Write the structure tokens for this entry.
Amino acid sequence: MAGAPGGPGEAGPTGSRLVRLSCRACCAEADPDRPQGVCATCGSALFAEYDLATLDGPAWWREVAGRPPTLWRYRELLPVRDRRNIVSLGEGFSPVLDLGEVSGAPGLRVRAKDDGGLPTGSFKARGMAVAVSRAVELGLPTLFVPSAGNAALALAAYGARAHRSVRVYVPEGTLPSLVASCRAYGAEVRSLPGTLREVGAAARAAERAGSGFDLSTLREPYRVEGKKTMGFEIVEQLGPDRLPDAIVYPTGGGTGLVGMYRAFVALRDLGLLARFPRLYAVQPEGCAPVVRALREERPDVAPWEAPATIAPGLLVPAPFAGARILEAVRATGGGGIAVSDASIVEAMRVLARDHGLSVAPEAAATFAALPALVDRGDLRPGESVLLYLTGTGLAFSIEGLAASIGARAGS
Ligand SMILES: Cc1ncc(COP(=O)(O)O)c(C=O)c1O
Ligand SMILES: [Zn+2]
């Protein structure tokens, strides 16, 4: 793979400190240098562990600051071992934008980290860049993912760049432009009925006997490692002493929240971070299993019945690693909040008109959540908050989404 000098693509070790995979549920360990899905003992998610003792935190952080502005600057804490295996489209280091004080949230300083400009238009590029690179390293020829759309698009693009065979499974009704783009990247697209839950189950059944490796959210250990870079970047871009008090994140499968939390823990363990921002999970009122589990103080996330929302990436009624999502929110002192589809569409309008930001409905949900978080006292005057804008809105018609809500209300 061609790469910038000193960046991805050159032969030679990355310096990755990856030592093992481990299961947080049953403490089983797995060999990271063989392909691994879920924990072989209990079926939960496996997570990468790194030998931090061999890294001098402050010296490493200073060195990182001088590297090219992609997520590979954090390569010691990413799983890819040889630079030759890095599959890159230049992902990472998205801008943090100041929105100042916004209507509906007086007294708050609001900033936004905008991943809409990443390759394929969403933060999914982070996870797929790392997972596909690692799949190349482990010699996996065929990759598949069930996805609401953005992860499919990202896998299709990175798979094309890596010359891997890719199959994506998407719910019927996924934006036709997105399906067409997946095909343009050379992926095989299979459209199936139901939400991500049903599509995921059907995809895994169809692939069981085949050669395809499953890149479903948190059912393999490396996409979440790519998402970790969201947290590294926030700390690097704002500085450990000027972090936001809170980060508001649109939550579907939860890799973003889990990934950011993992980043903060790693930086704390390296002596680089003393205080964590509070993490808030935003979900639509029509599919809010994480918010409900937080409100009811449950140890895990129960499936949401009859899910419905205009935000495809948030239509995840039964997130696979619910306990890990709850852990990230609770350990940081954050919380959960549900927003209506109508407020999401209104937030898309305001972000475009007043701030020049065209964002996906999932991303707009973070802005829509501000008034309720202020009303509830979760966000207090004088505090600063960072909205994580996970994807571009360029493929969406705001008026089309508004009409679909109207049609649903009338039916
Ligand atoms: C634009 C967008 N935002 C947010 C999400 C939810 O992501 P997570 O799995 O990190 O909760 C998705 C998932 O598809 C998405 O496409
Ligand atoms: Zn286990």
Q: What stands out?
A: The chain has three domains: 18-85, 96-122+221-410, 124-214. Residues 122, 148, 150-151, 217, 250-256, 313, 360, 362-363, 390-391 surround pyridoxal-5'-phosphate (ligand 1) (CB under 6 Å). The chain is about 35% helix and 15% strand.
